[in-house]
Design a protein that fits this description.
- The structure holds two protein chains of two kinds.
- By secondary structure, chain A is α/β, with parallel strands linked by helices.
- Chain A is built from 21 helices and 33 strands.
- Helix content of chain B is about 30%, strand content about 15%.
- The longest helix of chain B is centred in the C-terminal third of the chain and has 32 residues, at about 250-280.
- The chains are: A alpha/beta, B alpha+beta.
Chain lengths: ~800, ~300
């Protein structure tokens, strides 16, 4: 979230698209209700189904799964055509006026630089025209046809209301009404908040879905303001923390990149990291990258990371391919290239696409280690559970080590919520049986591995042998000690270069990342967390709910990264002169000497408005990007691409129907179905009664939603003779699910390119372990397709067939 | 369930004795369920199960999000989901938390023949006192909202207590505490009615011209009230009665038949007395005993 849960109450319009906040985030949804009741807000829901969120919405519009970009590009077209944008904001705070290079082009569904063989783009033409000093050229009058705003206008011109309706199946009048509601927040003192979740990420165009709405929000002047923002509602307790500490195959803590094998030295690696300002006088905060990096290496390797060895740069793993995500991992398992798998707090047999492929992959392993508080399906993949898991145990040679762990309530620690708050929690109970904490287990594995390397050598033991491990209890390091390590401390006396006085003594905890140095005198395990555990104590454990303006900002409740800042880009909440756009809901303002207000400024605290420093300080040009330069894999402007499995061709460019750079392996492509065999669009989702695949293990949740089902509209059900609550077989090219049918008015056929299109809803929660009734699992059906930027699987749009059948029988 | 001190009672089933009502200063309480801000998450249902320690068997999918499929001795509150296409052709999903309405004039209490098995406290809560319940099922017939359910295990009647045990120590009912969107509120009946009016103004401004409060006067008002978008058509909400009223049989029982019956009982007693005086006591034969057993067995089976 750029903003906070509480801040939703300040919105004038709340749009839930690409998510189902009431159902998946019922506790946080109270702030939407608060916005409606206390702020007169209108709630708009755009979703293929009439969800529980839609049940309390002021306006609902249906949309075909996988067509959000067409819808939102249509919104952008509407805003530009009706001139319903916040001019001063767009002019001052976005790159609308910057001039794009001549080589950049878009034709027949492809941006310039496409390589058909590698399915990737050479992105060198996706940039600004630079002047002699290396600054982007700009035309403040927006007359130059190569201005971002003019190229954008041209790009979205195809997305007329007729075209949007033709692609999305949304009736034109409903689309236009949504546009009007959005446009009402272009006024400087009005704000719209965008709440989204996996409904946008789990597509082959997931990152671009979100980007398109971010562009809408920039045009409306809704980023950085109270009641505005792009608010990703994180679905998993601490999934935000997971991302923050970089638990992805190509990331390091604090959103730093793991080096690739072409970056053979620290200097080469740094060349592409420390972005020089692209406009005069801009902050371009990533210029500090080296400080964050060196401090991380010091936290990892202590004294062994030295200037002489490039701060132990060589000990970091180097990627030979862009990344080793889960889809790749299971591809490798299936090809026999990965023979061991440690599965910590993860249940891929339920959670990853194409369940058959997952099961085959696990069956080829030599060993599988699972670490989980629950008896997961993954740890039982080898066992025959009847039609829901027809395994032939005798044929499977995988040795499975099932390690029971404690859960969050059985240990101290912190969780990062959607609003980037690190909230400390305290152990409430002892773990059951022989359950051990993940820290204890991982430490044990580490010590034994290191001992093996010490004794037996090995190809490259240095990274393991040199890791620093100076914990009071090396067997099971204390969570507080780990948190302090993340926060960071001074390794030598830190002096202020101006006065030459010691500001921070050696050994003391740091107050924040501004103190980090690139000379090895500071250590910090995760720079964005710096400030969470200082000499003043554990900031994450603070529980003072005082909210000075009752505007949803309680600065002394827990601690938010970065720097306890609650609303990102909050400089943009004030106009170029430093006066709040909305005087009724100010965040920060310029008082003549410094920035003051209810939040920590996302800006130099004494940088004068007249200095012209842009509010988007992480970007090299200091501006919000309507044109993303080279930051996206699939284009600097968002474009509508059909899902990899789609009932129709892309009417805009049939030759490039789906995302040309989406991640698809050849054998997965062979497992795509055609609309002839599989004529219906399916989408998967969560129900409020369950949390993923966990709560089916809990009796009360199992009672509240006991059995697997799919949702089907009345029209299609009648056509297929399917009765309410009757048995159906849902099949895709990859597998089939036999379950009950919920015949509902909440899913209606949509007219897509003149043809009726039916949507089948597939809730995901059932498996073959736990208390609820056994189910096949939605991922039996889903395709193995990754988003072009994040490799997130396309769970939200694929093709199925559905038939009436009888109850499943054990083979 | 709960038995507060009888000095809190204002009504007591099958009793002519007026309770002492020492605590008549108590405010009338009410639970206000604002269906227009309810998201159907069932937090109330799970809180009810937790607080009252109730666990229904794991059921099946029955063609709705409504689970379990009905109220039961182990299910005291239940989310009901109705898909409704309005006059404009737009869909509305009307979600309502069902459970005891705690009528000011409770049909169950009126119908109950077991002295003290159903009571009403000064705060308005209608409560079942299980150890006095005889499991006859008259309360089921007497309820205009089809709420009480008789347990097959102990032949006693069960329903929502409005968490009388929590309320008596100054806590809100468990469902109120659990509700994430504030759709369930609890307080004095006056405050709840005032708040409902504010909500109705807001709803009318959003185009729900018939928004209103459900506090049916046919049962003297209720201590569980609803804010409805369509107050003119309560039955849209999974059959919430448009005009709830206590069955005429119960009214007749209380008003006319009961006095006659009581007279009949008195007459029989008098006749018995004279019979005893003139003929001596009856001896119970073995046949009588067996016949009695059969009657009891049959009664068990029908429950």
């Amino acid at each position: 979230m750029t903003n906070t849960w509480q801040d939703i109450k300040n919105a004038n319009v709340v749009v839930v698209m690409g998510g189902n906040a009431a159902e998946a985030h019922p506790c946080g949804f109270k702030w939407v209700i608060e916005a409606k009741i206390e702020n007169g807000a209108k709630l708009v829901v755009v979703d293929p189904r009439f969800t529980r969120t839609a049940s309390v919405a002021d306006y609902y519009a249906p949309i075909r799964p996988g067509t959000d970009i067409a819808f939102l590009n249509g919104v952008i077209r509407y805003l530009l055509e009706k001139d319903a944008i916040q001019h001063e904001y767009v002019r001052a705070y976005t790159n609308a006026g910057l001039i794009v290079k001549d080589g950049f082009d878009f034709k027949d569904g492809l941006f310039s630089g496409y390589n058909e063989e590698t399915h990737t783009y050479d992105k060198s033409s996706w940039d600004y025209e630079l002047d002699e000093q290396g600054y982007a050229k700009s035309d403040d009058t927006w007359q130059n046809p190569r201005c971002v705003i003019n190229l954008l206008k041209q790009h979205v011109s195809r997305y007329t209301p007729e075209m949007v309706s033709r692609i999305c199946g949304t009736p034109q009048d409903k689309f236009l009404h949504v546009c009007e509601l959005f446009a009402s927040t272009a006024a400087p003192d009005k704000a719209m908040t965008s709440l989204f979740a996996l409904g946008w990420t789990q597509h082959s165009v997931g990152a671009q879905n979100i980007r398109t709405m971010a562009m809408v929000q920039l045009l409306l002047g809704n980023i950085g303001v109270a009641g505005g923002g792009m608010n990703a509602l994180r679905g998993h307790s601490n999934i935000q923390g997971l991302t923050d500490v970089g638990l992805l195959s190509n990331l390091m803590p604090g959103y730093m990149n793991l080096p690739n094998d072409k970056e053979t030295s620290l200097d080469v690696y740094m060349k592409t990291k420390q972005y020089k300002p692209l406009r005069p006088g801009q902050t371009s905060y990533w210029q500090n990258y080296r400080k964050f990096f060196v401090s991380f290496q010091k936290a990892m390797y202590g004294d062994a990371a030295k200037q002489e060895n490039d701060w132990a740069y060589d000990w970091l793993p180097k990627l030979d391919i862009p990344l080793y995500d889960i889809i790749k991992a299971f591809e490798m398992m299936n090809n026999g290239q990965m023979t061991g798998y440690i599965c910590q707090g993860f249940n891929p047999l339920q959670a990853f696409p194409d369940r058959g492929k997952i099961r085959r992959g696990l069956s080829k392993l030599k060993f599988l280690v699972t670490m989980d508080p629950l008896d997961t399906e993954t740890s039982r993949f080898w066992q025959d559970f009847g039609p829901q898991n027809p395994a032939h145990s005798a044929d499977i040679q995988t040795e499975v080590f099932q390690l029971p762990t404690t859960c969050f309530a059985e240990e101290n620690g912190s969780l990062v919520n959607s609003a980037r708050w690190l909230q400390w929690h305290w152990k409430a109970a002892e773990g059951p049986g022989i359950a051990k904490s993940d820290i204890w287990i991982m430490s044990g594995i580490f010590h034994r591995l290191r001992e093996l390397y010490r004794k037996e050598g090995g190809a490259f033991p240095d990274p393991l042998l040199n890791v620093t491990w100076k914990y009071t209890d090396p067997i099971s390091p204390d969570p507080e000690e780990l948190a302090k390590e993340m926060n960071g401390r001074a390794l030598a006396d830190l002096t202020d270069p101006a006065t030459n006085t010691v500001t921070t003594k050696a050994g003391t905890l740091l107050d924040g990342f501004a103190q980090l140095r690139d000379d090895g005198t500071t250590a910090s395990g995760c720079w964005i967390f710096s400030g969470c555990f200082t000499e003043k104590g554990n900031q994450m454990a603070r529980r003072d709910a005082t909210d000075p303006r009752e505007q949803g900002i309680a600065p002394n409740w827990a601690w938010a990264w970065p720097a306890n800042r609650r609303i990102l880009y909050n400089r943009a909440s004030a106009d170029p002169d430093g006066k709040p756009w909305n005087p009724a809901k100010p965040i920060i303002s310029w008082n003549g000497a410094r920035w003051v207000g209810i939040d920590v400024p996302d800006y130099g605290p004494t940088v004068k408005p007249s200095d012209g420093v842009g509010p988007f300080i992480m970007n090299a040009e200091g501006m919000g990007r309507l044109f993303a330069r080279d930051q996206m894999g699939d284009g600097p402007f968002p474009e509508h691409y059909e899902p990899l499995e789609s009932p129709v061709e892309n009417v805009l460019h049939p030759k490039v129907s789906s995302n040309p750079v989406a991640r698809v392996f050849a054998d997965d492509r062979a497992a795509f179905g055609s609309p002839k065999q599989f004529p219906y669009v399916a989408t998967t989702y969560r129900l409020t009664e369950h949390f993923h695949y966990w709560t089916k293990h809990a009796l009360i949740n199992a009672i509240l939603q006991p059995e697997e089902f799919i949702e089907i509209g009345e029209v299609l059900a009648k056509e297929k003779g399917i009765e309410q609550g009757g048995w159906v077989k849902v099949s895709s090219k990859r597998g089939e699910v036999i379950c009950k049918a919920y015949v509902t008015k909440r899913i209606k056929p949509m007219q897509v390119d003149g043809k009726p299109t039916h949507v089948i809803g597939v809730p995901i929660h059932w498996g073959f372990t736990g208390q609820a009734r056994k189910g096949y699992g939605a991922n039996t059906l889903t395709p193995s397709v990754g988003d072009a930027n994040t490799q997130t699987p396309e769970f939200k749009a694929f093709l199925v067939n559905v038939e009436k059948t009888s109850a499943p029988v054990a083979a | 369930m709960s038995d507060l001190q009888s000095q809190d009672y204002v009504r007591r089933s099958a009793s002519t004795m007026t309770p002492p009502q020492a605590r008549n200063h108590e405010d009338q309480v009410a639970k206000l369920i604002d269906v227009t801000r309810c998201i159907g998450c069932k937090a109330c249902q799970s809180a009810c199960m937790e607080w009252n320690d109730l666990r229904q068997d794991i059921g099946h999918f029955e063609g709705s999000y409504q689970n379990p499929d009905d109220l039961s001795p182990d299910v005291w509150t239940l989310m009901k989901f109705a898909e409704y296409e309005n006059e404009q052709g737009n869909l509305e999903w009307l979600i309502r938390k069902d459970g005891c309405m705690h009528c000011e004039d409770p049909g169950c209490l009126k119908a109950c023949p077991a002295p003290g098995a159903i009571v009403q406290y000064a705060n308005g809560i209608v409560d079942f006192i299980s150890d006095k319940c005889i499991g006859c099922g008259y309360c089921v017939k007497g309820c205009p909202f089809d709420i009480p359910r008789i347990s097959k295990k102990d032949h006693k009647s069960y329903k929502c207590t409005l968490c009388s045990d929590r309320v008596s120590v100054g806590l809100e009912p468990a469902c109120v505490k659990a509700c994430p969107t504030g759709a369930i509120m609890f307080g004095s009946k006056t405050d709840m009615k005032d708040w409902a009016q504010e909500r109705i103004v807001d709803l009318k401004s959003r185009g729900f011209e018939k928004a209103g409060l459900y506090d049916p006067q046919e049962v003297g008002g209720t201590h569980v009230m609803y804010v409805l978008h369509h107050a003119d058509k309560p039955s849209l909400y999974s059959g919430l009665p448009d005009n709830p009223r206590i069955s005429p049989m119960v009214t007749a029982w209380k008003g006319i038949i009961k006095p006659i019956a009581l007279f009949g009982v008195a007459l029989a007693a008098l006749a018995g007395f004279f019979h005893w005086i003139t003929e001596g006591p009856n001896e119970v034969t073995e046949e009588d005993e067996a016949a009695g057993e059969r009657v009891l067995d049959d009664a068990e089976k029908t429950l």
